[in-house]
Amino acid sequence: MTANEMQYNFELKMNTLYSLKKPFTSYDINQFLNEAQDSIVEGHYSARDGDRREHFESDEKLRMELAELITNHSVQSVSFDTSNSALHANGAFVTVPNDFLYSLREECNIVYTDCNDDTTSNTVRVKPITHDEYIMNIDNPFKKPYNELIWRMDYGSPTADTKRHELITDGDYTIQTYKLRYLRRPGRINILDGSDCELNVSLHEEIVNRAVRLAMATMPKTENVEQKTES
Known about the structure:
- This protein is of the alpha+beta class.
- 26% of the residues lie in helices and 30% in strands.
- The strands form 2 sheets. It has a 7-stranded mixed beta sheet, with no helix packed on it. A two-stranded antiparallel ribbon has the order 1-2.
């Protein structure tokens, strides 16, 4: 469904398609469509099932619906920030892409000197941890980083639109490359410039229906506008 078709369906469901006085402009409809899109992506990424939260990769339908948003990214060590005063010992800041939403898989290529004094390279896993976990385990030789494991903590950035990861080693090896597979934010739907929804077509009708519900919630209760979308 194109952006223009989404607008058509939105106005059809709102019963305003042939209205002489339309309550919502194309700009307004853009806002509702994108808010609906973001809400659906968030809900599909992780949904509550009773007392548990189900991740989207555990469901084939959800994997298919969000597949377009799965993206790879890698950062070479020359782009790491290793001199920032906010870093922990043996830490390095890595800036993640602006469209980053959630991490799906992380790993690093490292080099180190083995017990035979030979330079060795390896690919190791990256484990996300909390700041509390850092405090509790940084001095624990059985849990802290080693040449098979790197810690990663989240950290803000001087600019509002960017985010950084702090990678922490044990100081005995060097990270060459940080590799990230992540779920990115979907591109903006824009009726005005023809930017279509990039999510799987199976979600387009759901986006329009949710946008209609959002729009209805903004209208005065005295307005007699028929909502034809599914509840």
